[in-house]
Amino acid sequence: MNYYFAPLEGITGYIFRNAHAACFPGTDRYFSPFLVPHQNRAFDSRERNDILPEHNQKITLIPQILTNRPEDFLRLSGELAWYGYREINLNLGCPSGTVVTRGKGSGFLKDPDGLDRFLDEVCRGLEQTRQRLSVKTRIGWESAEEWQRLLEIFNRYPLAELILHPRLRTDFYKNMPHMDAYAYTVSRTPLPLCYNGDLKTPEDIRRLEQDFPQTASVMIGRGLLEMPDLICRVKGAPPAPADRLSEFHGRLLDGYCGTISGDRNVLFKMKEFWSYFGKNFPEKEKDLKKLKKAKDLQTYREIAASILETA
Questions:
Q1: Which Pfam family, any one, appears in the UniProt record (predicted)?
Q2: N- or C-end of the chain: fewer Cβ atoms within 10 A?
């Protein structure tokens, strides 16, 4: 079984990935937050920094692209080939309203004919750059019945991997995953299959492995944000000690302080991190509330140290 860290926009950039890999080894692949095509340039400075090989030296990174235009996908893929990336991931899962109204992310699933044409052109184009395509998708827009046709389309192409989050766009991240749709997929695709969705404990992952032994990989997002040593635990390690959690926090904070301008912006990033990480400290509710209200880095550091030193 392979273990992947899902991309989360604004959170799992290269600073986070490197801190996580250093403290909690065992993640086979990290996926970049989605890249979007720009009219006059391949990447903005933030995107370029995130995918630079020198910023991802000790991890395996798969860049993800969000678009519904094959020419834009191939243009960005060509740029990524120059940086040495041999596999590119297509985002067909993002449920954000600002994304789907433009027919991108899970909004693209409403147009299966257009998606078929897109995949045909992209797969032929990637042959020229000797790159592979993987897809991260939901099972449809508003009805699970859409999945049969969508899977037939995916099966026609030589995808490196099909990463399936068995929810509809209308589910967002609520409701239970449609495990019947996942079971249907397991029995009807020749593609390497990765499961994504609601894996938050070692028991969740072991149950999936037992129920669907054909699954080659799992992708974990919020579960790893809440329990950063989740993959280590699945592989038999005990829960991370307090000093490891503190080291992870310190690497992350130092990384942001060294790359982000202004205490306010650093605080924003760290507070977003704590909205997940704080679940490791249920007995520290009062301190977590104080941390959320911190308005300067010095105050933040004192509160965070108090939480971590007694973990």
A1: Dus
A2: N
Active site residue 23: no
Query: CA angle, corner 11, sides to 216 and 258, nearest 5?
Result: 125
Q: Is 165 part of any known ligand binding site?
A: yes
Rounded distance, CA 308 to CA 311, Å?
5
**Close Cβ partners of 293 (under 8 Å, ≥ 6 residues apart):** none
CA–CA gap between residue 30 and residue 38 (Å, rounded): 23
Catalytic one of 23, 94, 194, 232: 94
* Residues 147, 140 contacting (CB under 8 angstroms): yes
Rg for the chain, CA atoms, rounded: 20
**What residues form DSSP beta bridges with 64?**
89
pLDDT at 195: 98
Q: State the pLDDT at residue 198.
A: 95
d(CA 226, CA 11) in angstroms, rounded, equals 13
End-to-end CA distance of the chain: 31
Which stretches of the chain score pLDDT less than 50? none
